[in-house]
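Input (structure):
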């Protein structure tokens, strides 16, 4: 069974930074694309970033590129999402996810965790 445990969420002031971590288990981490998507209050889910298996090619939601960085540590089966210059509109539950291929900046990944709340105050 694929499992994901996110951590690192919390409350941060606008302009601040936060890093989310996600420890994955139950599958061959190296062989899967990994990514993050989010859902803000009253909003639809939105892909944030994705990293392909193999070459680790990364793709970002265009509106977030430059502020968010996805990375992974295959040895630890852990993925990360570094977020900088946070804005109140970044407030959302962030989900780490995995699948064979990156789709829609992580939104199309089929397996995900319970989510981590990120709240950005103005």
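Output (sequence):
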């Amino acid at each position: 069974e694929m499992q994901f445990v996110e951590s690192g969420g919390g409350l941060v002031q606008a302009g601040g930074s936060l890093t989310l971590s996600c420890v994955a288990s139950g599958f061959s981490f190296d062989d899967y694309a990994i990514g993050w998507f989010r859902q803000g209050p009253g909003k639809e889910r939105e892909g944030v970033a994705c990293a392909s298996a193999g070459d680790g090619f990364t793709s970002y939601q265009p509106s977030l590129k430059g502020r968010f960085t996805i990375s992974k540590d295959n040895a630890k089966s852990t993925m990360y999402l570094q977020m900088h210059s946070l804005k109140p509109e970044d407030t959302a539950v962030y989900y780490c996810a995995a699948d064979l291929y990156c789709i829609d900046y992580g939104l199309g990944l089929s397996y995900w965790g319970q989510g981590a709340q990120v709240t950005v105050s103005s």
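Notes: The chain has no helices and eleven strands. The CA atoms of residues 13 and 29 lie 33 Å apart.
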